[in-house]
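Hello,

Our lab assistant flagged a job as stuck in the queue for most of the afternoon. It eventually completed. Since we weren't sure the result was trustworthy after the delay, we are filing this so someone can double-check. Below is the sequence as submitted and the structure that was eventually returned. Let us know if re-running is recommended.
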Amino acid sequence: MTLLRDEDLAAAFDHASRTYDALVAANPGYHAHLRRSVRRLGLPAPGEGLRVLDLGCGTGASTAAIRSVLPAADITAVDASAGMLARAAGKPWADGVRFVRAPAEHLADAGVDGPFDAVFAAYLFRNLTDPDAVLGTVRGVLRPGGRLAVHEYSLRGRRADRAVWTLVCRGIVQPAATVLGDGPLYRHLWRSVVHFDSVDRFAARVREAGFDGVRALPLPGWQTGITHTFVAARPEGGRR
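-- returned structure --
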């Protein structure tokens, strides 16, 4: 099986949107980990006056995490999948949250303009055809000194990490997804993580895109060594 990309991946997410939240709920710590990654942005609570871009919002779990940690922030949540975005937008939200359908590669075409104080991207970059181009776009919409947090599956590189990931996917996630009719998407999930950058390589990619202060922070529980928060900042001053 090849990796799903672009329109094929968006269509797979459209189909899976009806059951996505149920599968997510079976992942211990999923929502708590998202909130932890938002806190790692280091933004002052409650976020009044801040603009935050939630890039690849899916059904709104990452949006809810941002809202929980920064309840007064203005949030723009973007996703390429119409089905996932409809699920997200259909949930109850307080004022200050808007949803926009757009691929991460074409934010400007959808009227998503900076400057933002922070960009949060959960489970996005391993799905992109050109992650370097999107990192450049993200840097461009951040204000100088603006913060980036990427919450992503990125294996540390130990054989044990790959073994745990494969066991969870093939023993739990894929059988459940196949019953629900979404087997191709969750086979892509396994493969996309295995083929994605290691922790060190993705951190280097972020630095190469022109970000400062890049750090890779692990998440706890069974995902230790598998899921990380990458935090960084657009440089201050004259560096472009």
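-- support follow-up --
The delay was a queue issue, not a problem with the job. The result is valid. The longest helix spans residues 159-179. The mean pLDDT is 94.
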